[in-house]
Amino acid sequence: MSDRDVRFLDQNASVATQERWPLTLRGLLRQGPLPAPEDSMERALHLMRTYGVEALPVTLDGHLMGMVRRETLLRYAKEKGLDDEVKWASVGDFIEPAAETVAPETSLDMLRERWHSRLDQGLPALPVVDKEGYCLGYVHPLDLFFPEPVWRPQLPPIGGMATLFGVYLTDGRIQAGASNLALVATGAFMGLLIFGSLWLSSWGLERLALLVPSIPRWVFNMNAALQEAHPWWSACAVCVRSVVILPYLLLMRFSVLAGYHAAEHQTVHAIERQEPLVVAVVRRMPRVHPRCGTNLVAAMGIFAFVAELASCFPWLQDAAIVLAGLVTLFTWRRVGAFLQAWFTTRPASVHQLEKGIQAGQELIERYLQSYPKRPHILRKIWCMGLLQALIGMGIVALLISYIPSLSAFLR
Fold first, then answer.
1. What is the dihedral of CA 167, 172, 176, 179, to 10 degrees?
2. Which of 17, 29, 219, 382 is the most buried (most CB within 10 A)?
3. What's the sign of the alpha-carbon dihedral 244, 248, 254, 258?
């Protein structure tokens, strides 16, 4: 075996050791689809076959209603026959009380002790239920004694933001990676980019107005009101003023945020695909992500642009909102993906990918070490990071408002 092969094996061994996470209740928690009272008996049996359990929790709007057992369903099928009407019977007719539930803070040692003498019995799913009766998932008793190593756990949908100092990731309750202060600083930086793009656009439009004196000057004035008497010139003004986004996109493309933004998306893709968090794999992940905030900004921009453009013409004013909604519906995802690919992200450096991987590993570790719990709505809003970024933008806007020569751009 060559020295190169030895180094390769050592590297893989170190990665495997790094990604073998400690076993916790969170790591054993199964969160697949659970039957609802209105589901058919056929679907409940399919889920039991898929998960390899004798019984499953039945939930209504996430709250535990009871258990449905395979033995009960098969006994009913044997008595009634195997025609379609039997297969379509409602799960709600077979719900039984849950004989045992697991609190989210229960330790694995306590569960093992409770189930040690019952391994030779039927193995139902043990619902993990909080104090409000919400079913967070379930634990298979067999996993307590013969668990599979937790290599790459499946997390709930992950959100995040690129910051000036690294990648921020969250599952809606846990924060990892860049700090809240970094989010505020990034919001301030984005505020400066917005102000810079406004200044560049205003300066460029003033110069453009001098080059084409045949066009009314108010068309190039970003603060001038649209004139109903001149619908076509008003439409030109709407199109001209929309170029304000171009300097911002170019500034974003060549800023450090674009690289960290790509690293954030690629790390999230790797976690969602349960891929190993190593640079060689993460760098192959797509830079475009369907849940990126760029898509939402694109949707709002398209809607506002089309609605204002249509309102310039009297014969379209009544249908402006409907028209804007239809155009947005069919274009926002493609426009958002285009903006991500060409402006709001760029190929991440190794250092930026490492920052993303560090945030991803931190998120997974904190997730597995935490108790299963539903995040409070206020906690989810804070963890989004948007509020911190808005605070940073507000600070920049406040400072600029005290400079008379600059405050006009904020109006």
1. 70
2. 219
3. negative
Three-class SS state of 186: helix
A 10 A CB-CB count for 337 gives 19
Q: Going residue by residue through the chain (411 aa), what tens digit of pLDDT does each one get? A: 444 444 433 444 444 444 566 678 888 898 888 999 999 998 999 999 888 888 999 999 999 999 999 999 988 888 887 677 778 889 999 999 998 899 999 988 888 888 887 767 766 788 999 999 999 999 988 888 887 666 677 788 999 999 999 999 999 999 999 999 999 999 999 999 999 998 899 889 989 889 988 889 889 988 888 887 789 999 999 999 898 899 999 999 999 999 999 999 999 999 998 888 999 999 999 999 999 999 999 999 999 999 999 999 988 889 999 999 999 999 999 999 999 999 999 999 999 999 999 999 999 999 999 989 888 899 999 999 999 999 999 999 998 888 766 665 555
Angle between helix axes 231-241 and 293-311 (nearest 10 degrees) is: 160
Does residue 246 contact residue 257 with C-beta atoms inside 8 Å?
Answer: no
Q: How far apart are alpha carbons 233 and 225 in whole angstroms?
A: 12
Core vs surface per residue 200-219: b (16+ CB within 10 A) or e: bbbeebeeebeeeeeeeebb
Q: What's the rounded Cα separation, in Å, for the pair 74 and 41?
A: 9
In which residue ranges of the chain is CATH 3.10.580.10 found?
A: 23-145
pTM assigned to the model = 0.84
| Rg from Cα positions in the chain | 28
Backbone angles phi, psi at 63, to 5 degrees: -90, 140
Quick check: 353 and 282 in contact, CB under 8 A?
yes
Q: Which residues contact 358 (CB under 8 A, 6 or more apart)?
A: 166, 167, 177
Alpha-carbon distance of 25 to 28, in angstroms, equals 5
Strands 159-163 and 166-170: antiparallel
- Measured CA to CA, the distance from residue 263 to residue 156 in angstroms comes to 19
Amino acid at 368: L
Fold of 23-145: CBS-domain (3.10.580)
The secondary element (H helix, E strand) that includes residue 384 is: helix 377-384
